[in-house]
Structure formats: C-alpha cells, structure tokens
Design goal:
This protein is mostly helical. The protein has one domain: Glycosyltransferase, CATH 1.50.10. The chain is 47% helix and 0% strand. α3 runs parallel beside α5, α5 runs parallel beside α7 and α11 runs parallel beside α13. Its EC number is 2.5.1.60.
Length: 319
C-alpha cells in the first residue's frame, strides 16, 4: 500500500489510550465504568498492534481482570458487576495478549459458557436469557481460544447461525433480523472458526459487504443508507477477508478515511472526521489499518480479533 507510515500518529494514540485509563474522572472513563473489561481489550490490543504493549504493567492488569471473575466462572465488565459473555471474551482476550491464559480455571470458565447454550443451538448473553448471534460468536471464539470447543454442540450452534442468514446474503441478530455488518462479522467469524464457511454464498455476501463502502469518503457503513463509521472498517473488512472478497473494495481509499478520523493533536480516532475520539473507534481504526497491511502495524487475525502472533502462541506454541 502506497502510504507513508508516519501518517498514523502512533505516539499520540499510545498517549491517548494511557490517559483514558489514568483519568478515572474523565467523561469517557465514567461512561465506560460498566464495560471497562471491553475497554481494556480495545486499548491493550491497540497498544499491541502498535507494538507498545510492554509499557503496560501486566501484573496490575491481570490482577484486576481476575478480580472481575464471578463465582459462576464468567467475567464482569468491572469489579463487583454482574457477569456476561461479552465481558468474558474480553477477559480471555486480555489474558491472551499477555500469554497468561494459564491463570484461568479453564474447566470452570468453559462450563459457564457451555451453560449459556440453548436447545436450538443459540447462546444467551447471561442468566437473563437475551439471545443474539454476537453471543454465538463470543462463545465459539472464547472456547476455541481455551481449546474447549468440543464442550458445546457445535453442529447446533452452526445450524442456528445459518438460520439467521438472509436473502441478501447477510446475517441478523436472530432469525429474520435485518442484515448488519457487525452481526455479519460475528456469524462469518464463528463459521470460520468452526470450519463452516461453506454455508455462505460468498459472492452474494461479498457484494452486500463491498456496497458498504461509500464512494465519496471511502469509509464503510453498517447498513444501506447509513453514514460511514470507522468501526465498520473492521466489521466489513474482516468479513471480506474471511470470504476472500476483500479485493472488491478500494483499500487505499478506506485507509485514507481511517487516517482522516485521527485527532492529530491529542491522539485517538473518532467514528468520522472531526467527531470526538474514543477508545472503541481508536481500536477498530487501528485494527482496520492492520487488516489493510498498513506499514509498521502488527498483523491481526480477522476471525479472532487478536494479533496473529498471539494466536500462533495459543494454537501452535510459537511466535
């Protein structure tokens, strides 16, 4: 890609991510209090992609993560909060970044996730029973990282995901739900991890996904007629890579859109140019650039949403 590596404000983004964590009274920190585990995953993975994770006190992070584990085996978004499958995956991903999955009681944790699978193969997010294909992806991704995918009914899990496929090739959050790029990533990612991508009409889905790129800005949206948003640089791009249709979009134009959403003075990336930055969009912007093979960034795995070297350690015991 013909881009200057200096266009990404690496040092400023690092400084921004660290400032979000340090300033507990800031608006962003307060509004993220209930989902701090997700924020830790977004921020720390961004630092790793920028090859700056060593500046973090990993013992402090791991200690905090383990304090968020509930007696059920699942993890909460913060200490003394209720457990949810969303935060459980983020906790596992954070520990994976530091190569510390061995601190977990893996059987206890995998039992928690298995207990959330329903008769039809779907997954609930927690004891209250909300069902969503996001939770199917999270369960499959999490158990795969823990080498415990055999503990669930994978066949039924795949059947449920396939039942959420629409006539346009996309996927919704439940059967009949509107196709959405975020849900499509969850379904495609889960099917990729389980070796089930043959269920997808790759040309039909690829066409729907590449139509998410807006001609004027080069950015991606999540559904037809919506504004572009940096986070869809990840949801759409990773899905296109997994179904081998990424060559159908203008990658250079997308990279320019992401870079145009940076706060070049204070660091961080926003959803669209000149909007307020946050750690969520900073992560998905950098992750998107990683998928675009932007110079100087570590490679990220499009299915597991973790750096490739982290995945290699988990599955192959090597860097």
């Amino acid at each position: 890609m013909e881009l200057l590596s200096g266009e990404l404000e690496v040092e400023k983004h690092v400084k921004y991510i660290l400032s979000v964590e340090k300033n507990k009274d800031s608006f962003e920190s307060v509004t993220m209090e209930h989902l701090r585990m997700n924020g830790a995953y977004w921020g720390l993975t961004t630092l790793d992609l920028l090859d700056k994770l060593e500046i973090v006190d990993q013992d402090e992070v791991i200690s905090w993560v383990m304090q968020c584990q509930h007696e059920s085996g699942g993890f909460a978004g913060n200490i003394d909060h209720d457990p949810h499958i969303l935060y459980t995956l983020s906790a596992v991903q954070v520990l994976a970044l530091f190569n510390k999955l061995d601190v977990l009681d893996i059987d206890r944790l995998s039992d928690y996730i298995c207990g959330l699978q329903n008769e039809d193969g779907s997954f609930s997010g927690d004891i209250w029973g909300e069902v969503d294909t996001r939770f199917s992806y999270i369960a499959i991704c999490c158990l795969s990282l823990l080498h415990r995918l055999d503990k669930i009914n994978t066949e039924k899990a795949v059947e449920y995901i396939v039942s959420c496929q629409n006539l346009d090739g996309g996927f919704g959050c439940t059967p009949g739900g509107e196709s959405h790029a975020g849900q499509i990533f969850c379904c495609v990612g889960a099917l990729a991890i389980t070796g089930s991508l043959y269920h997808i009409d790759k040309d039909l889905l690829g066409w729907w996904l590449c139509e998410r790129q807006l001609v004027q800005s080069g950015g991606m949206n999540g559904r037809p007629e919506k504004l572009p948003d940096v986070c869809y640089s990840w949801w759409v791009l990773s899905s296109l890579i997994l179904i081998d249709r990424v060559h159908w979009i203008d990658k250079a134009k997308l990279a320019r859109f992401i870079l145009g959403c940076q706060d070049k003075e204070n660091g961080g990336i926003s959803d669209r140019p000149d909007d307020a930055v946050d750690v969520f969009h900073t992560y998905f912007g950098v992750a998107g650039l990683s998928l675009l093979e932007y110079p100087g960034l570590k490679a990220i795995d499009p299915a597991y949403a973790l750096p490739v070297d982290v995945i290699n350690k988990i599955f192959f015991g090597r860097k």
